[in-house]
Amino acid sequence: MSIEILIFGAGAIGAFYGSRLAFNNDVNVSVICRSNYNAVKSNGFSVESPQYGDYKWMPTRTFSKPTEAQKAGVNWDYVVVSTKALPDVNDDSELLQGLISKGTAIVLIQNGLGVEEPYMKRFPEAIVLSAVTICSAAQPNHGHIKHNRWTRINSGPYPENSAEATRRNELFNNYLVKGGVKDASAYSAEKMQLLRWHKIAINAAMNPSSVLSGGTDNASMALDPDMYAHLKGVMEEIFEVAPKVTGKPFPKDFATAEQILNSTKKNPSGSKPSMQIDWAEGKKMELEVILGNPIRLAREKGYEMPRLHSMYALLKAAQRNREENSKPKL
Ligand SMILES: NC(=O)c1ccc[n+]([C@@H]2O[C@H](COP(=O)([O-])OP(=O)(O)OC[C@H]3O[C@@H](n4cnc5c(N)ncnc54)[C@H](OP(=O)(O)O)[C@@H]3O)[C@@H](O)[C@H]2O)c1
């Protein structure tokens, strides 16, 4: 019998990893689309990648919304959530009601901290797997996925390592590896949360700083001595607080702030962080999961992160001002 995987949020990341999972003969991959529904329903996805070449992918089923997916009556083995994590806009877990059964594993491939909680609370009978990816992908037009570089993806059970969650996590990881994603690896629940904090250090430094500096690209930020000092300060603030919040030290093989920034300096591709791209397109930024939740999780344990807090306050106000200015004047 085939494994049934449903991708909720078939944008850059969801469609890219969905297309790789679909290379397994015993896996059916279906998608819930939104604005790209008509294009994907008619022609599927075309994926362009320097690593995998150019290929087409027609999902097993293409749905226009979650309620349509419910009507298909499939028992989903995995529901992959790859929407932007915007808890201040919408609780996406609510939209999955009717799609999750006892045997379903929900895989969250999203940036940020605290993204798992709403799913765990709403679906206590399901398995929740938390995943983080280092990847650069975009959907420049509907149904066209441009994979630029990197395919590192790690996933782990949340919140703890039950035998069944560990087994399902390893199975999912094997499907990625068999789909050609060589850098996929299964982590324990504890290591996964440390990795989330580590990734947050990169995101919380690069993303807000690009927006606040008027759209500076990653390499230019790392090459500017004052920006370098600022980015290193943000990363180190998180690297200092995270082990205190989680009660665990970072593994020795996780990169230091200097290593991250030196590698960023060497990639003058002009690439900009996703938050800057969202801001430039007038979209909501993932402020709560990248800045707000880390600040709150640290504060619950008695720690402050003043550099993060400054950027959070400034960007929240900028976003609020823009929304208010865009309302029609009566
Ligand atoms: N792109 C990257 O290179 C990258 C790298 C690492 C991590 N990430 C993280 O991965 C996550 C996904 O990012 P992404 O870049 O793939 O975002 P994206 O391209 O915007 O894809 C998200 C998709 O979810 C869809 N969606 C949102 N709400 C929906 C709903 N209610 N029903 C159906 N579809 C819905 C969006 O549809 P619409 O187009 O209609 O809004 C969009 O197609 C984020 O947390 C991001 O930070 C991204």
How is this structure best summarized?
It contains twelve helices and ten strands.
Fold and architecture overview:
The protein has 12 helices and 10 strands. Helix content is 45%, strand content 20%. The protein has helices at 12-21, 37-43, 66-71, 117-122, 163-178, 189-212, 218-223, 225-246, 257-265, 274-280, 287-300, 306-326, and strands at 3-8, 27-32, 45-49, 53-57, 62-63, 78-81, 105-109, 127-141, 144-158, 184-186. The model has no long low-confidence stretch (mean pLDDT 97). Strand 1, helix 1 (12-21) and strand 2 (27-32) form a beta-alpha-beta unit. Strands 1, 2, 3, 4, 5, 6, 7, 8, 9 and 10 form a 10-stranded mixed beta sheet that branches. The chain folds into 2 domains: 3-187, Rossmann fold, CATH 3.40.50.720; 192-325, N-(1-d-carboxylethyl)-l-norvaline Dehydrogenase, domain 2. It is of the alpha/beta class and 330 residues long. The chain binds NADP nicotinamide-adenine-dinucleotide phosphate (NAP). NADP nicotinamide-adenine-dinucleotide phosphate binds next to helix 1 and strand 8.
What are the SSEs and their pairings?
Elements: E1 3-8, H1 12-21, E2 27-32, H2 37-43, E3 45-49, E4 53-57, E5 62-63, H3 66-71, E6 78-81, E7 105-109, H4 117-122, E8 127-141, E9 144-158, H5 163-178, E10 184-186, H6 189-212, H7 218-223, H8 225-246, H9 257-265, H10 274-280, H11 287-300, H12 306-326
Parallel strand pairs: 1-2, 1-6, 2-5, 3-9, 6-7, 7-8, 9-10
Antiparallel strand pairs: 3-4, 8-9
Helix pairs in contact: 6-8, 6-10, 6-12, 11-12
Q: From the 3D coordinates, which CATH architecture of the largest domain would you assign?
A: 3-Layer(aba) Sandwich
Count of folded domains: 2
CATH H-level superfamily title of the largest domain:
NAD(P)-binding Rossmann-like Domain
Q: How many strands appear in the DSSP assignment?
A: 10
Residues in helix, %: 40-55%
Unreliable runs, pLDDT <50, ≥5 residues? none
Q: What is the residue-mean pLDDT, rounded to a whole number?
A: 97
Under CATH at level 1, the class of the largest domain stands as Alpha Beta
* Individual helix count: 12
Shape: globular
- Under CATH, the topology of the largest domain can be stated as Rossmann fold
Structural class computed from helices and strand pairing = alpha/beta
Span between termini = 60 Å
Helix-strand string? EHEHEEEHEEHEEHEHHHHHHH
| Molecules bound to protein | NADP nicotinamide-adenine-dinucleotide phosphate
Query: Proportion of β residues?
Result: 15-25%
Radius of gyration: 19 Å
For the sheet with most strands, the description reads: 10 strands, mixed
